[in-house]
């Protein structure tokens, strides 16, 4: 009897001692990140059969276990990766939003200042200070474009560094998880859970989810497998697979993510790398940084190209036709006709070597340009043009594919003309960045203020004495400078522009209500017969446009000829140049320069606002998930204090059992003396 009581007391002492130790361990780790409180799991051993029935043999401690909920821990991981994604995205969007939306030092104020200087020249076309101020304002605008472009380039370079550092951190965490997997498998072979090691691994997985979204799969031996992307194994038992940050074969200036397996490197599409800091960096680059850079480049290209076209339709103070006001990258399309060249065309680094074909092209219609980059791919049968912004693809029709391999090229729906020197090898791809690097190469071509073409190149004149003078009420609006919409034509090269055209009015009863018509002499091509006259109508010949009003008399005439004035108050082309500011030229002729740029600013602002809201929401969800997890697993000092008293009393009571057993044993011994 005494021996069984001794055994029961000792078992109680051991159980209470383990309880005290476990409680002390909990208290010591109250501030340890990721620690799950532990408790002892105990049971009564199998009783001993006696004549009086089954006698209890005390208590045994089966295990020390974590107070842990797998689903609550998983919820924290999911909330963590989303919170990290939104916070990272917000921090970068805030940076780019501050760049593009600056209300005082931004591009829009510089555009406004430049066109104000153009209006000043229109007001005082022969005034040297106004002309010099226009050149100075133009240089300021170029500088503003280039400063903003440089800041965005710096953002891209910094982004590449962040991507590389994030990938290195992911690989480091994966290696630590793999190492803990090995230790946990060994420790768990004892039959008992290594609680602290499990907590450390859970914390590593949570930290890993700050960087990239992972999917975990627990195994029966205690290890876990971690997967990223669409099922690529990052940690499989004790085996670790690494990610790499490598130059994209299509765009070496941008870092992409590769998956390294058995000496083979597989490039992961950006949209497969989701969640966490890395997913946010890739999405930010694709959705925001590319948009901002291409929008800035398109605004600059649209402005300088259309401004040049209009400027060349005017006449300067030296009596010469206008020349290019801005300098920028062009390619020669035909004799005397230069067109904007495509910024960058790159063959994919994985193309067949040696290359069988190269891709060239130019910008054919600026109004159709989008802010996207493209990829032309050939599979051996079909050509596919992919929009890299939205993922849409267009397979060229047979006639379009045939045109692609001719010098004339294939005209895309997005304003580009593309031409291959030969049929490429199957699988070859070409990246097309229509706008890349344009701003870095733009400048001001005109340095002499007298060369600003503010006047119109042609002028309408009526007969003067001693010739017969006009006697009707004909009202002449001077010919407008020719405004070209196609980049493949040049009004300054029109050989008929300065050919005099004379309109002579004659009665024509068939014309209602004016009763007048006119003959045209000098037009190319020649106009045969009478042309009905309608008051307020606009007529166009030899590359100029003119409005006539009033009622001419029989024999009245007007001649459109070269403007021979070199120092007049003629401001027609300056007015046309100023009008470009409010002309919808970009985005399919739906937006002015500033409106097109403003749409990008609004998009980035909306993304920033959305990211701000989502960041706050995800932080709240993360806090709630951590609170739910902590309500189960975190150390509660009040509860642990109560456990200390409980185990202390159990220890004292078990000691008392041993003491009583000792006295009973002594009494039995004394009976035998």
Automatic annotation (TrEMBL):
SUPFAM superfamilies, A to Z: Phase 1 flagellin
Pfam families: Flg_bb_rod (PF00460), Flg_bbr_C (PF06429), flgK_1st_1 (PF21158), FlgK_D1 (PF22638)
Domain Flagellar hook-associated protein 1 D2-like: 348-434
Domain Flagellar basal-body/hook protein C-terminal: 632-671
Presence of the UniProt keyword Secreted in the record: yes
Superkingdom of origin: Bacteria
Keyword Transferase assigned: no
Protein known as: Flagellar hook-associated protein 1
Protein species of origin: Deefgea chitinilytica
Recorded name of the encoding gene: flgK
